[in-house]
Structures are given as C-alpha cells and as structure tokens.
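mind reviewing this fold:
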Amino acid sequence: MWEYEHAVDTAATAPAVWAVWSDVMTWPAWNAGVEKVDIDGPFAPGTRFRMTPPGEEAIEMRLADVVPHELFTDVMDAGDFVVTTVHRLQPNPAGGTRVVYRTEITGPAAAEVGPQLGPAITADFPEVLAALVRHAEASERKD
C-alpha cells in the first residue's frame, strides 16, 4: 500500500467548502489539475465521473462515499491497483475548517505502482487545497 495525506486550515465553513466540492462542473475553475469533468448523475455514492487532467486522457472514477459537509471519497479502479482519495472536512478548534485530502493506492500492484503514481497524483495537493480554500472563502464573503 502507498499513502499520502495533506491538510490545510481555512476560515471558511464546512458548508462553504462543500458547496465548492459538490459543484463538480466548476472544479476546473479552481483546480489547475482538472481541464474537464463529466459526471453521470448526482454527487452521490455510486455516481461515476470522468476527470481530464490538462493534456491527458480522461480518468474514470466513482464516488464511493458522500456525506454532505463532511467528506467524499472517489475511487479509480485499475484492476490490479486501486486509487482511493478521501476528501474530508473537520472542525478546527481555533475556528473555521480543516480540509484533508488522503490518497491510498492498494491492490496487488500497489507496491510497484504506488511509489511512482502516488507522488504524481498527489504532488499538486498543496496548490489544489490552497486554491480550494481561497475559492470557498471568496464565495462565502459574497454571501
């Protein structure tokens, strides 16, 4: 198994961050690693979506868990390995919200694939989370 976690704190509330996350079609507006997203239904467990990184082929994923204002989990199943990313919101005791992204690569090929694929997937997490919280904080100020 390969794993990585990154977290940031924001003054934005969990509902403000959730509003950004659950509006999948706007992901390219704040996530530079997403050129396009197509989703086959509601932001709910079992829904499949395709996320296209800039200049690359679309990656097919499935929403495994969705708990509004708390977390969602997406899964990319490549057969001999599975990439699971949990996007979690936690109350920050100092106020605001802690946003956590955790990725795990499991399966028979995880030991071989994980050390190369994992860092490629997660390298932009600091920038993505920073952009996410900026977007959530800005949208909250507008309300």
